[in-house]
Task: structure prediction
Amino acid sequence: MSHFLPFVRRVGMSDMNSSAPLPSNPDVRVIGGGLAGLTAASLVARAGPSVVVHEKRGVIGGDARSVKREGFIFNQGAHALYRGGHAERVLTNLGIRLGGGRPPAKGKLIFDGRAEIAPAGPISLLRTRALKARDKLEVAKLLALLPRLSAAQFASTTVDEWIASSVSGDRAAQMLHALVRLGTYANQPDQLSADVAIEQLQSALGPGVLYLNGGWQTLVDQLAAMPSVHIVTGLEVSALPDAPVVIIAAGGPKLAEALLGKQFEVGPPAVTSGLDLGLSQRPDEDLVIGGDVPFYFSNHSSVAALAPEGQHHAAVAQYLAEGDDPDAAAMRAFASHAGVRDDDVVVSRRLHKMTTVSALPVAHLGGLPGRPVVTDTGHPNVFVAGDWVGPVGHLADAAMASAETAANAALALLPTRSVVA
Result:
């Protein structure tokens, strides 16, 4: 291992949550102060070893950070915590409070520029004019079958292939593609493995998702406040730290590749463009999904405290395929399907391009089981974690599941330490 040779990227360095001196030779150094890094650090520190988290930015949280604009709380794009998933389990295990609510499934589905009833159950599926009778029958059959599907059987099947083999109608296929985009934050159906798409749909249509009171920053703040986790900001790590254990949990595969001097075989990133809207009044619709266009609108404050009293925060997303350019005007126009008028907008923020998944599980690599594992570093005491690592979960679920595995691997190397449950 090379010596620890960080250099200052931004002015400032802080031990953020402890009055005790920063350990000069900690048991574990974690590179990255996002959800994966903070989770791994918290799990290790709870078992006793000393931990230092290194975050190159001046603030921690990564893509889980939230900002406040004129009283509205904006996440880094539309965020939802999947109920019953690995992230919820790990966070609960750590004692992290999860306040918020499950958003309503009722909404509108857009085809040919017209808003129709979004099928959210048998009755709305019968009532909607978005689908023809044959499409409705095919969708109903697939949704009835979905809870019993074994996602693992489709690890080497693309989303395009799975949908084409499941339905024959164009509208039915477009609707399923829309649901997959919504559940995976990805618009690469020709590469994305169907196993993750099926798992996400099973979760979304089963336990559902949670919009968090106060935004995802509440998770960051609680994880950062965990006892015995020391956090240093404003430094970029340019070489592997000389420490008993190192966990690389930042920058997706690119940073890990740079530090380890090796290449990971992974899928492409998922990228979206976002538009946050602070609204003076509730929109006519809380949810609008693009059926034949890759757009989404949701009133996140319909069930979560994210806006001043009497006002609302909505998120618009454009799911970008490879080669697509963000279209801010089209996103703003899409919000009009929810009844948002220009006069309703108190404040807005545009996120031109943001990576929602560092590297997608793709069919040609074997889907979720084909992702790199936490020990795939070439060093017995160096581990990786993040939304692109491990065979378990997607988005935050993958980040936290791999963080837990990395933490357990770290504890197994340290003397007199026990693996966390």
Q: What stands out?
A: The two ends are 30 Å apart (CA to CA). The CA atoms of residues 12 and 234 lie 5 Å apart.
